[in-house]
Amino acid sequence: MPTEAVLKVTILGCGGSAGVPRLGGGAGPGDGFGDWGVCDPAEPRNRRLRSAILVEGPEGGRLLVDAGPDLREQLLTAGIGRLDAVVFTHQHADHIMGVDEMRPLNRSIGGVIPAYGTEETLEDVGRRFDYAFLPPTPTFYRPALVALPVPLAGEFTAAGLALRTFEQDHKVMRTLGLRIGGFAYSTDVVELPEKSLATLEGIDTWVVGCFQRDPHPVHANIGRVLEWVERLRPRRTVLTHMGPDMDYAMLREMLPPGIEPAYDGMRLEVPS
């Protein structure tokens, strides 16, 4: 019998905008080695780079979702030397500041990398990295991307994958949610419009942003995610974009079955 086609998803980073630990720290022996909050520094899964994922399709296409300042380290650690496309969920620095690191990937594939996002996001990325959207040079001495705008709610194809987009409320801006078959990715979100929840109906695995335990003005907290999960009932929910309030062992103990914290390097397989 033929095997079921699956998506392979790698959590390249699951931290908030400052990562875990954050720069700084209190007075004492640990001063300067970072602010871990309540996270246990002895637990490797508490060390979190900025949020990004890699999705690999059944036919081998590789789609990067967000390219933050830790991109080089993330791709080297995951053993990824080739990409077919990138999607930017929004234009905050922790999701785009790795654009310059993509130059060796241009050399690896010998071509320009398609870059998807809303028109607003791509315009902002283009202002910050204008040189990355110029015609490519023969030796790719600068990164080479081509901007391909997509709607907040619609469909498009990238890296051989069929994607559906849905709108997310981040309060300070709208962000792009993504659904690929039975998989969905929602980072930097505090509220989901009714139409977006409808798009998420029937998902198998959901990686969703959850910055902390208590309510936050621009990010979902545990209570909000639990409300969404109660409605959508995915088989598996994985929390990402977590801050120093979210200790891995504590979360494993307190979260109900079917909900778990991500960790950098985590690999998921989802029916496509």
TrEMBL record:
Metallo-beta-lactamase domain segment(s): 49-219
SUPFAM superfamilies registered for this protein in UniProt: Metallo-hydrolase/oxidoreductase
Listed Pfam families: Lactamase_B_2
Protein name: MBL fold metallo-hydrolase
CDD domains the record matches: metallo-hydrolase-like_MBL-fold
InterPro entries per record: Metallo-B-lactamas, RibonucZ/Hydroxyglut_hydro
